[in-house]
Amino acid sequence: MLTTLPSLLARAEHGRYAVGAFNVYNLETIQAVVAAAEAERSPAILQTSEAAIAYAGMETLGALVHLFAKKTKIPLVFHLDHGKNEKLIMEAIKSGWYGSVMFDGSALPYKKNLKLTKKIVKAAHARGVAVEAEVGAIAGIEDFVSVKERDAHLTSPEQALEFAIETGCDALAVAIGTKHGAYKFNGDCQLDFERLAEIKKLVKTPLVLHGASGVPAAVKKTAMKFGAKIAEAKGVSDPAIKKAVKLGIRKINIDTDLRIALNAGVRQFLTEHPEDIDPRAFLASGKNEMTQVIRQKMRLFGSSKK
Ligand code: G3H
Ligand code: 13P
Ligand code: ZN
């Protein structure tokens, strides 16, 4: 069943766990999230980026997610991830497909981000759609050359408080040192947990962690064994994710780990069954790898059986 982002995240706050938000862009990614959610009896968020919409179409993805949601009792939310194009965000709000949209104004000056977020919140709420916004800019701690630069990019607790109150957004993405993609750290996984604790103390809006993929060792090993060249890939460690949830993160975004899992499953199947040219067979292999990874995330985030 479809539900709303605020109700899902309020329950997560009450139960002190986080809900996984998984990027989907085709039938197999949607099937994998729903299969994992049913197997774990866990709520889940299915999200489409602007690139996913360009790839598969808003209506196609929306209709598929709604169809799957209708057939399950598991609470699901359909969400627009990293909306930057105002026109596309408005289209998503008006489409009736999305329960929530993210407006990502992180590349804009703070005041402009605040102003545009307010405008989008007003339009979205008028149609019963929730809004995730972002304050600070998601970037890896190792990307900053000085403490000053790091402070300028990572989320300021005071600014997060002002932003949450002024915009009335329903969820807030914070920058504490994670970044998107498969190459997050050269050395150890480092996140600014002190900053997260400060933000949580001040901000009552549910907090979102982007760039949270872990690059699971076993999946990376399989992908590499069958030809993927991702030796330097490194993600957020499982203990760091557990700590972030303990400190108050309630929505966790995962895309990269599903990409690696799909890649590993397809590569393994094609290598082991070179005679089998049926795409349904190699896609099923990739889909199964994704389902296993999503199930592990649900257990890690504490949303299983919730
Ligand atoms: O945060 C970004 C997501 O990983 C989506 O990536 O824009 O390539 O679909 P994408
Ligand atoms: P990863 O690249 O770590 O999976 O992050 C995905 C994300 O934040 C989508 O918004
Ligand atoms: Zn993101």
Automatic annotation (TrEMBL):
<feature type="binding site">
    <location>
        <position position="134"/>
    </location>
    <ligand>
        <name>Zn(2+) 2</name>
    </ligand>
</feature>
<dbReference type="InterPro" id="IPR000771">
    <property type="entry name" value="FBA_II"/>
</dbReference>
<dbReference type="Pfam" id="PF01116">
    <property type="entry name" value="F_bP_aldolase"/>
</dbReference>
<protein>
    <submittedName>
        <fullName>Fructose-bisphosphate aldolase (Class II)</fullName>
    </submittedName>
</protein>
<dbReference type="InterPro" id="IPR050246">
    <property type="entry name" value="Class_II_FBP_aldolase"/>
</dbReference>
<feature type="binding site">
    <location>
        <position position="82"/>
    </location>
    <ligand>
        <name>Zn(2+) 1</name>
    </ligand>
</feature>
<dbReference type="GO" id="GO:0016832">
    <property type="term" value="F:aldehyde-lyase activity"/>
</dbReference>
<feature type="binding site">
    <location>
        <position position="104"/>
    </location>
    <ligand>
        <name>Zn(2+) 2</name>
    </ligand>
</feature>
<keyword id="KW-0479">Metal-binding</keyword>
<feature type="binding site">
    <location>
        <begin position="253"/>
        <end position="256"/>
    </location>
    <ligand>
        <name>dihydroxyacetone phosphate</name>
    </ligand>
</feature>
<feature type="binding site">
    <location>
        <position position="210"/>
    </location>
    <ligand>
        <name>Zn(2+) 1</name>
    </ligand>
</feature>
<feature type="binding site">
    <location>
        <position position="180"/>
    </location>
    <ligand>
        <name>Zn(2+) 1</name>
    </ligand>
</feature>
<feature type="binding site">
    <location>
        <position position="181"/>
    </location>
    <ligand>
        <name>dihydroxyacetone phosphate</name>
    </ligand>
</feature>
<feature type="active site" description="Proton donor">
    <location>
        <position position="81"/>
    </location>
</feature>
<dbReference type="GO" id="GO:0008270">
    <property type="term" value="F:zinc ion binding"/>
</dbReference>
<dbReference type="InterPro" id="IPR013785">
    <property type="entry name" value="Aldolase_TIM"/>
</dbReference>
<feature type="binding site">
    <location>
        <begin position="211"/>
        <end position="213"/>
    </location>
    <ligand>
        <name>dihydroxyacetone phosphate</name>
    </ligand>
</feature>
<dbReference type="GO" id="GO:0005975">
    <property type="term" value="P:carbohydrate metabolic process"/>
</dbReference>
<keyword id="KW-0862">Zinc</keyword>
